Amino acid sequence: MQFLYRFRPAEALLAKYQELERQEIYFASPDELNDPVEGFKDMFWCGDEIVWKNLIEHYLLYLESICRTFLVDGEYFLIGPASIPVSRTDGDFPTTACQRLYQEICELFFKNELAARWPQLLALRSGPIRQNELYAYLWSMHSHALNTIFAVYENHDFTLRRRGDDSSRRPEIRDAIGVGVVHANTVEAQRPEVEDGIERSYASARSLLSQLDLIEMYNAPAQATVRKNRRMIHAGFPEEYLKSLERLVHPQWYTATFTGNYTNPSMWGHYGDGHKGVCLIFRTNEIDGAPQIKLYGVDGGSGGRLSHGWSDRQFYKINYEKKYPEIDFFTSLGVLPAPALNRWYFDEHKNKSSRADALYSDENAWRKNYWDKFYKAITTKLEPWRFEDEYRLVLTPMETDLSEKSKRKLKYQFSDLEGIVFGIRTPADAKRDIVRIIEGKCRSESRTDFKFYQAFYSKKDGHMEKQEMLLTFNQAGALNGS
Q1: Separation CA 316–CA 381 (nearest Å)
Q2: Which of 86, 138, 333, 437 sits in a 20 to 30 Å window from 64, CA-based?
């Protein structure tokens, strides 16, 4: 049996969320965790002409959807990541007219001789393209993509025609992708020992674009600052699209964090509400070499309906590394169903991309490798976090939407709660209320082995220790010391 510890503010256990009374463990989204880059995906892109053309067409699909939303709603509703599902394909249009419109956009986009060469040029990249480099390429093609979409809109009288002298009507298309690929290949061949020289260079360029955007925002008239949707379409979309690609790789996940060590003072200070909170001690059982705990909550669902039940949940120990694991985007599209995958891996002539070989030759092996990389990605943190000695429970809904917080509260068995450690600054009234709740639960389950502890600072060792509080309840439910 192994004990794991969970720090909580006293208010979370009591009136605010009633976690102790309800015996609940809350699973947080990555955005709610303390590490600002929690779940960071070090993605790279390396592919043949088929997947690169499909990515560009996917970019047009996503951009056209945003533009169409803007034509209808303007600035009335803020367009964000949730506005358009990024997993949608060109087979998911509500009408054939919408599908034909999109096909017309793609045809006009690639009618330009330079744009038609972009998939081939990207495929000639000898090394992996990382996020900053890909951002530069997306930015370079964005004006042509936007002009193409609005040109088609104008042809169908969906929007007013731009003036003939409008600069957006005939944007200058430069060979930034071709020049960038040749430059990157040359530099990497000359300096193979420099692992991320190209990415650093593009990171500087991306930072410069961000500065110019900030200057433009600062100097813009006051009324222009509220045109967030227009600005996102014209300037912010490449950034938004790049972020959205992460949602195609791995499913949404939620986690509840624990630690193997309650003695670190900084852990008490941060997670234990400045030593005013408490530390819950949980018993775990080892199954196949990993600690587990039995929880009750959402364990599946289909057709929009959730199913609930008790199940063993594994604790994953966090690995602390010097850098995050890499993820090959074109071989990691595990969120998509088979029809959508085919639209990424095949061209219009049914030719298959070589990047799909692993999936189609041995799907079981590919799937195992995919999930291994998923769990490695969400259980890796950088070395400065090593002091946390973290273990985490993970919730990965594949067929249900658990964005609502109430659906991410799983119940534990009271018998698995070994004891509670009070912080050195836990208020007396919070201690009293916690003891009352535990007394009622012990009485209802005829339990006599629950333990309370008081944390104290050990001058000898320089960390926190715990001392058992010899508390007992008499027949009337009164609290006694022994």
Answers
A1: 12
A2: 333
Nearest to 130 by CA among 194, 31, 213, 41: 41
Residue 206 CB contacts under 8 Å (≥ 6 apart), including other chains: 132, 135, 136
Block residue for tokens 């009622």: 440
The whole model's pTM is what?
Answer: 0.89
CB 139 within 8 A of CB 173: no
Buried b (16+ CB within 10 A) or exposed e, 103-140: eebbebbbeeebbeebbebbbebebbbbbbbbbbbbbb
Please state the length of the chain. Answer: 482
Residue 5's nearest CA partner among 461, 420, 468 is 420
Tokens of 167: 């600069």
Q: What is the pLDDT of residues 185-209, one digit of tens each?
A: 999 999 988 888 999 999 999 999 8
Return the higher-pLDDT residue of 416 and 85: 416
**For residues 395 and 244, is the Cβ–Cβ distance under 8 A?**
no
What's the CA gap between 128 and 38, in Å, rounded?
23
